[in-house]
Write a structure and sequence with these properties.
The protein has strands spanning 26-31, 52-54, 57-59, 156-158, 165-167, 230-234, 240-243, 248-251, 260-264, 268-272. By secondary structure, it is an all-beta fold. It has a five-stranded antiparallel sheet with strand order 3-2-1-10-7, with no helix packed on it. Strands 6-9-8 form a three-stranded antiparallel sheet, with no helix packed on it. The protein has a two-stranded antiparallel ribbon with strand order 4-5. The protein is elongated and about 65 Å long.
Length: 273
């Protein structure tokens, strides 16, 4: 049996449109959330990612992918709610469902739900998990026979850093490796989502994208979620710095007009002087 893909972390932006935040001189703490750690496909519940925060903005961690295999836990096959929701677990449980996305709710929405099982799915003989939700699309449902497993939902592209980068893709579902290893696992969503596995461990989400981890195949370990990232863009006249040194401040060339971009890949402080 295959585990479900994890949901992406919440994607929130005010670039290029949206309400900007105006800040005075001082130091402002920034938290970069961690991806949820992957677990064995038959050990529910999973682990959600942790939140990323700056000022009044919080991006919720992604929801965990649900377990596979028989379980006495009535919610074992339900994906976790989060920025985007985790996928539903396999074995044809009629109570299986994808986790809710945009949880807690924001406007515009920060994510999408995880995939569920195909209608009246027997899941035999492959027992594939569903995909985790992404920033721009819900996770894919696994097929009635469980193969292919559900794909991760696509993330969203943004050019705040000066060039387009896609963030917050959902993880793909894992699939059982019988008969004869012919099952097809789900692909990770564009934006750092990890691929599901047919046999072995799921692929982890890409660091600093908020991508969901891929589901494992046949009683292995799911991929961990990718860590988050916080990116701020300020006028070229702003005097800003980022600590610790892992985080960076760069000045964009024309035609961006010399805007400064602070990129936080680990938790730290933005200082305006």
């Amino acid at each position: 049996t295959g585990g479900a893909g994890g949901g992406a972390g919440g994607y929130r932006t005010s670039f290029p449109g949206g309400t900007k935040i105006k800040l005075g001189s001082g130091s402002y703490p920034i938290v970069v959330g961690a991806g949820g750690a992957g677990i064995n496909t038959q050990t529910p519940p999973g682990n959600n990612g942790t939140d990323s925060t700056f000022s009044t903005i919080t991006s919720a961690g992604g929801g965990y992918g649900a377990a596979s295999g028989a379980s006495c836990n009535p919610t074992a096959h339900v994906g976790g709610a989060g920025g985007s929701g985790g996928g539903a677990g396999s074995v044809g449980d009629p109570n299986a469902a994808g986790g809710s996305g945009n949880s807690p709710p924001t406007s515009p929405p920060q994510g999408n739900p995880g995939g569920g099982l195909a209608p009246l799915a027997t899941q035999s003989p492959y027992y594939g998990g569903s995909g985790g939700g992404g920033a721009s699309a819900a996770g894919g449902n696994s097929s009635p026979t469980g193969s292919p497993a559900g794909n991760g939902g696509a993330g969203s592209a943004n050019s705040i850093s000066g060039s387009p980068v896609t963030y917050a893709g959902g993880g793909g579902g894992g699939v059982g490796n019988t008969p004869a290893g012919t099952g097809i696992a789900g692909t990770g969503g564009a934006g750092g989502g990890g691929a599901g596995a047919r046999a072995g461990n799921g692929t982890s989400g890409t660091a600093n994208t908020g991508g969901g981890g891929g589901g494992a195949g046949s009683q292995n370990t799911g991929g961990s979620g990718g860590s988050g990232v916080v990116i701020l863009r300020a006028p070229g006249s702003a005097n800003i710095s980022a600590a610790p040194g892992t985080n960076t401040v760069t000045t964009l060339p024309a035609p961006a007009g010399g805007c400064k971009v602070a990129t936080f890949t680990v938790s730290g402080d933005l200082t305006i002087s």
